[in-house]
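Researcher: Last one for today. Full complex below.
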Amino acid sequence: MPLPIDLDYDRGVPVYRQISEAVLAALATGQLAPDEQLPTIHDLAGQLGVNPNTVARSYRDLERDGHIVSRRGRGTFAAIEPPSPPPVHEREEVLRQIFERAVVEGARHGLTPRDIFADFRRRLKK
Amino acid sequence: MPLPIDLDYDRGVPVYRQISEAVLAALATGQLAPDEQLPTIHDLAGQLGVNPNTVARSYRDLERDGHIVSRRGRGTFAAIEPPSPPPVHEREEVLRQIFERAVVEGARHGLTPRDIFADFRRRLKK
Amino acid sequence: MPLPIDLDYDRGVPVYRQISEAVLAALATGQLAPDEQLPTIHDLAGQLGVNPNTVARSYRDLERDGHIVSRRGRGTFAAIEPPSPPPVHEREEVLRQIFERAVVEGARHGLTPRDIFADFRRRLKK
Amino acid sequence: MPLPIDLDYDRGVPVYRQISEAVLAALATGQLAPDEQLPTIHDLAGQLGVNPNTVARSYRDLERDGHIVSRRGRGTFAAIEPPSPPPVHEREEVLRQIFERAVVEGARHGLTPRDIFADFRRRLKK
DNA sequence: GTGGTCTAGACCACA
DNA sequence: GTGGTCTAGACCACA
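Model: Here's the assembly. Have a good evening.
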């Protein structure tokens, strides 16, 4: 099961972080179950067309933060007990940034803040 | 009226792009009206604690894309006629990505999709 | 094959733009073929005696306009499909300006219009 | 008789130098005869929409190089004996740069080097 | 090794 | 005072 990762070289986010984000998203949505094996570094690098060093960097960060575990000679696996999210100290700031990014990304494609809002409502009702 | 910009050095996105995004958001939400003066490069750099060159790079990019206009010796101003956004070919896809990123970012900080939705509603009512 | 670039510090044109112009000229005359590698930022900076940042700025502008492509960790290359030039609305006006500037620049150095013409012929025959 | 000056803010050449160039061109082509009066700094600044300091800077440079003379309380006049052009030491380099600029400017408007060459021929036959 | 970002600071162009 | 260019040099991302 290949991870669904679309790299966006125009987004300004380093490739190794985009990989980490995609893995986190797969974990958050259950596409990647606890203890399930991830693609090998070599395979994922091949799939994405990047240097294996770049995937390795992402896996290293994810392991350091407790999201995945690598077992020497066997492969890399989703953690059984994922780390709990940090308490929100700066809730207001986080929300403002989420809003801002959504609005900018929408404006870049001709969508108004209200378009985005309406879409969110629709998705949450589903 | 200082632009509300919070830089996030852990996000991987270059500082100059975070500045551009914040200005674009201010333009998109009307906080910055056409022809309104932006903070000077020096002032914004001081406010953000970054080097003036970094702000200058952001302003240069924004000018190149037609969002702002800088007048040497006078200052930098929001464009009167902002560039029209490209037609939305894959509206559904764009909206899905915006939603996904917002939700993943929220989850990372312990915020639910409904928290985000409620926050959007609040901001749009303002 | 080093790019033939002579910087003129008395011309008033910023160095990074002179570099861009020289690259564009090399592309226009075929001295630089599609997908051919350009000198690295560091090498060109050394050759010209300028700061690498200055070359980087030129390359960045050229990339933004689609003339070249930079591949991180690998180098910088002439675009395979250069951007199409805008349609010539005021062809006559553009040609007149080009002629005038060439002649004035020549006169400033004691060269006649015929000297310039003869030189053009020679270069196009090469 | 207003000098025919079109400032081009996208050319990278400082405004005060574009003014100098236009005056030099008018002198070279005889539009401005020896001892003929130039527009006052104030008038030319108004005509061009620039700060008088900018025109003053141009006139100062032109006077320093012997192209014009300012007579206190009377105005500014074309020199009676214009300075002779410098001997061409680096003829080859000057010609190369003239060629390069012409080609780049043409390419920017969809004109080939041959278009420009043909145009030069036409103008010289006239 | 090659490109990308950022800083600190100098000096210039224009109003 | 405000924006524009350039340098010297540090550190990071990617191959």
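The first strand of chain D starts at residue 68 and ends at 71. The two ends of chain D are 26 Å apart (CA to CA).
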